[in-house]
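Minutes, project check-in
Item: structure for the 285-residue chain
Input as provided by the requester:
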Amino acid sequence: MASGRRTLTGFLLFLGFVAGLVIGYSVITRRAKPKFLATAEYWVYLPGDSMPPQDRVMDRMLAGNPHSKRGQSPIGKNEGLVFSDVRLHIALVLRKRNPHVFRPDLFEDHIEPSATDLQALSEAQSLVKVRYVSEEPLPDKRHLQFLLHAADAYAALGEGRIVYDVMAERLIPIEELQATLTENFDATGPELHVRTVWKRTATGGVAQTRGLAKIGFHELATSEMEADERWLVKTVLDEAVKEIWQAPSMPASVEVSAYDDRFRILVQEAKDRLATVRIQRVQAT
């Protein structure tokens, strides 16, 4: 009898131990998937294998910023606080240790590098990774202003010729980036950070946004569409992004105009930070 009780007690203790492991794992898993997650990241490809000094980068972004207007730098007091923000991460990645991030053949089909882009990538020996990740809701979009100007500064000082916007999945020649920052003192608009891509399928394609994650929103994706609907669907999503970008949280639906027609975009439940949308044509009353 005593032996049986000891066996039962041992079994119950074992079950308690297993239950504790399961509960602990569940807690850790929940913590590993925060409800809010904003991620913005740029890779600045450089021909050399060293990172420009931080003091020179700061000077170019602040007092020496070539995109200043009327003596005012686009990196003001609020943006300057990002320099000391623990959510900012800047690191040098060497080609000889991470050759895969320098291979354009591994890019998605919709990235489509030009001949000039390919040459810049082939000559690059390193890249500066400029990344900002927040699990806390953001009061504004100052981090986006900071990151674009940081990418510009590292490219200019390191003689880089191309920048990769990781979240928007877009290669940006340095001349294009510089022109964009000169034309846009406020560089936080959706047209600079988000785009809609078309991913081909066997019978058509799927339109998906790239870049909404920069402000903590889920990316949007349509169901499979006919190939001849590509440009209409992309235009509708582009217009929807403009509305969503200004919202404090992801709306359940938005209405937009495209091609002299009116459309309603219904945002459905998100899975793995990707929300499926339904596009309806709004009937005139």
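Outcome recorded: The chain has a mean pLDDT of 90.
No further action items on this chain.
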